[in-house]
Design goal:
Layout: H1 2-12, H2 17-44, H3 47-58, H4 62-70, H5 75-85, H6 91-106, H7 110-135, H8 145-204, H9 209-218
Helix pairs in contact: 2-7, 2-8, 3-4, 3-8, 4-5, 5-6, 6-8, 7-8
């Protein structure tokens, strides 16, 4: 049975396999947490509504742009509403501040994966060193010392193999999530800059956002 082989291998790896197992479960939890967060984030995006908001913003129809982001979970439309609310002070700063909070949420617990990528192989190496030290204690005791030493070294390498495997399993999703964060940051920057240009264009055509923001704030 596969389960029996796994258990036997785990026991042969020594006591260091327990912290390695803890690292494995922690890595799985973080990967699941980040995967769920990104799936939920993707589900909230409404490209059609975002385009409607941009068109409304450029034509000076601020009420429509506001309404599109008022009762939605789309982070880009929420970001626009934050900027429109503070247009009488600094729309750009308000949108950038909101974007910073979103980026922080997208990067949450990424430092854990980064730490585990380094920690797991080190734990495995530590387990191997401890196992080899124990194996050499048989030297000089009897004629079968050589076979016991070689067998002990083979068992000690289990910890290193497991540690490296966990590091590889952490590295792949870590780089994937880092790429998603980078894409999100770039999308937010383009969204904010585009929104600012659209508001400036609307102002040139006689539509001022600041009175609208003042009315929203006074309510």
């Amino acid at each position: 049975m596969l389960s029996n082989i796994v258990i036997e291998t785990f026991i042969k790896g020594g006591w260091v396999m327990w912290p390695i197992l803890g690292v494995f479960f922690l890595a799985v939890c973080v990967v699941l947490d980040r995967s769920i967060w990104w799936l939920r984030h993707q589900a909230t995006l409404q490209a059609t509504q975002q385009e409607r908001a941009r068109v409304a913003l450029g034509t000076g129809d601020f009420s429509t742009a506001w309404a599109l982001g008022e009762n939605t979970s789309d982070p880009f439309l929420q970001n626009l509403n934050q900027g429109m609310t503070h247009a009488n002070t600094s729309m750009l700063a308000a949108m950038q501040l909101h974007a910073t909070h979103l980026i922080e949420k997208s990067e949450a617990r990424m430092w854990v994966l980064s730490t585990l990528i380094t920690l797991a192989p080190l734990l495995g190496l530590f387990g191997t060193v401890v196992g080899i030290m124990g194996s050499f204690s048989f030297v000089g005791d009897e004629q079968l010392a050589a076979s016991k030493v070689s067998g002990g070294i083979g068992e000690a390498l289990i910890a290193t193999a497991c540690g490296i495997a966990i590091a590889i399993l952490c590295l792949l999703p870590y780089n994937f999530f880092r790429k998603r964060v980078s894409v999100l940051r770039g999308s937010l920057e383009r969204w904010i800059n585009h929104s600012e240009l659209l508001v400036k264009s609307a102002k040139e055509h006689g539509h001022d956002l600041e009175p609208f923001a003042a009315n929203r704030t006074s309510r």
